[in-house]
Amino acid sequence: MSGTTDPLSASSTSGWLTLLAASDAQCPNCYTEPGALAFNARVAITAAFFFFFSVTFFLSWVILFKKYSIFPSMTLGVKADNCSRINSTIHTAIIVPGLLLGLFTTTWDNETMMPLTSVAFLQAILCCTIAYFICDFIVIVYYKVPMWIGFAAHHAIAIIPFFIYMFFPQCPYGLFILSGFMMVEFSNFSLNTQAILQQNGHGKSRAYAFAFYWTFVSCIFIRIINPIAMLVILHVKIWPALPEDSKVYLLPGIISAYLIVVFCSSVFVGVLCKELRNRWAAEPSPMDTADPEDTRAIKSPLNHRSTEGGWKADPNRQMANAATTAVKHAAHMDDDDIVTDRAPLVKQL
Fold it and tell me: What is the pTM of this model?
């Protein structure tokens, strides 16, 4: 496969948007993908998206301060986290449909998964991802959002393969893998919805339950199966076809990919599976009170164990129910002849 010149770089323009084939000058013997963006074009697009995400972050801050009633009372880190989630949602809305479009409209070599048609569009989308990671990393570290160390480490590791691919001309390989890997961002929609609902006291609502189960199911396919499939394709098809002198440049990206797979799997098992278990482990007692919006399943009303969440044993109600039961038996009354505090539970059932 021979490289082709980016049609945008053929036109001579002035200023900071001048598209020079700087990558070719740095590495004249390197393979150039068909229609690849010139080096300066990649820098310019990344800078433009970085500016975009910076503006949306501060605009989100201003709008939330005025329109979101609980925002002013939040700590600085939580405020930044909320604005960061807006950027996360915007980034996901850009790259997921963009990458899907690029993956399906690009022709790929079946043996090596190398592109046979122009890669300019996919590269521009990946520039967006690089800019988002840099911008969000700065926000996370500067404002020290909740769990900032973990998120900062995630961003620092995740950006490595994208940065190498876009800005190291010696390694223009793995575009298919990078594009496929970024599908993990799809679950951000439901994850951010969960965070907002929980923040506003709707953690036991039906809307939260829907968002949680959407996250859980999507993560199985998008954050577990998909990255593992990408690693299999990488080792079976891409790695054997690489020139020996280029493999060393791909190694940091491969290590990063494995770490991200471990991270995603750990979050799925340690957070999502744990929450699923907690939601289904709560088995209410007949003398417990029910949250009308609690969406967890009721397994056995005979189990008197009470856990934190929607079902909580109320001692006063238990005493009242016990007294009512005693009166009922003394008077030989049927269940239908007396009204007790179990009405919320009956309604929930």
Answer: 0.73
